[in-house]
Design brief:
The structure is a single chain. The chain is elongated. By secondary structure, the protein is of the alpha+beta class. Strands 1-2-3-4 form a four-stranded antiparallel beta sheet. Strand 3 and strand 4 form a beta hairpin. The chain starts with a helix and ends with a helix. The protein has three helices and four strands.
Length: 95
């Protein structure tokens, strides 16, 4: 692997670590319900997704649905890698 490619991979890992936590506190009235899904069934038999989670975010009567993926690119949501649902999903898997 070339030196430039290694440096790019390190930078990507560093950026993902930086944005893995949301800017605000997670305890700001939000409730996250995390439900695992089967990646083979949802994304297809040849998918590279290793983990797929459906996250329901409830805040002040509003409900938002998120799909959180883990694959070779890391953790991300359909709203982007900085979405608070990514942090909630990773936290629920640690428990």
């Amino acid at each position: 692997m070339s030196k430039v490619k290694k440096m790019a991979m390190r930078a990507t890992v560093r950026n993902v670590r930086r944005i893995s936590r949301p800017k605000g506190s997670v305890d700001d009235g939000r409730r996250f319900d995390v439900r695992p899904l089967d990646p083979q069934q949802m994304c297809g038999a040849r998918t590279s997704v290793e983990c797929l989670l459906r996250v329901t975010e409830r805040q002040e009567g509003l409900v938002h649905h998120h799909l959180v993926y883990f694959d070779r690119h890391g953790w991300y949501c359909d709203h982007g890698p900085a979405c608070p649902a990514v942090f909630a999903a990773r936290r629920s898997l640690r428990r």
